[in-house]
Specification:
By secondary structure, this protein is an alpha/beta fold. Helix content is 38%, strand content 24%. β2 and β3 form a beta hairpin. α2 crosses α6.
């Protein structure tokens, strides 16, 4: 049985409360359920300064087989900020509009830049879609949410 959770946007407190409703409990440093698995769809970043903690919680759930994750457009955009296409150039331009869009997320990693790079690599490793026996999950990169 699956619980599909969309577009967290770094709201870790709301996420923790939401996970408790169907009976997920904290197991060391992540949440799990004896009979269910969460499927996170969409965005973990932006809109709240707890992006690092939120991403880390979801990552621990995925790594401990308590969840699956399909990234959304904000995650893709964040990753393009770090994807070089030429010396000094990136897939997403480093302009004031893009810096403002990711300001809360980037502030969450101040002093923890090594975690930002590690989390970026993990995000890149996540599937673009899930194609399971009775369920398909995907978030097209251009989706506006």
């Amino acid at each position: 049985m699956y619980d599909i959770i969309g577009d967290i946007h770094a709201h870790i407190l709301q996420l923790k409360e939401l996970l408790k409703k169907p009976g997920y409990s904290k197991a060391w440093n992540y949440y799990s359920h004896a009979e269910r698995k969460a499927i996170f769809v969409g965005d973990l970043v932006n809109r709240d300064p707890e992006a690092r903690k939120t991403g880390r919680l979801v990552r621990r759930m995925v790594e401990n087989n308590a969840a699956l994750f399909v990234p959304g457009n904000h995650v893709y955009s964040l990753l393009t900020c770090f994807t070089k296409i030429s010396p000094g150039g990136f897939l997403l331009r480093h302009n004031s509009q893009n810096r403002t869009a990711f300001a809360a997320t980037l502030r969450a990693y101040i002093g923890k830049e090594d975690e930002l790079m590690d989390d970026s690599l993990w995000l890149r490793s996540q599937p673009l879609y899930l194609n399971m026996k009775n369920l398909r999950v995907y978030m097209p990169a251009g989706t506006k949410n």
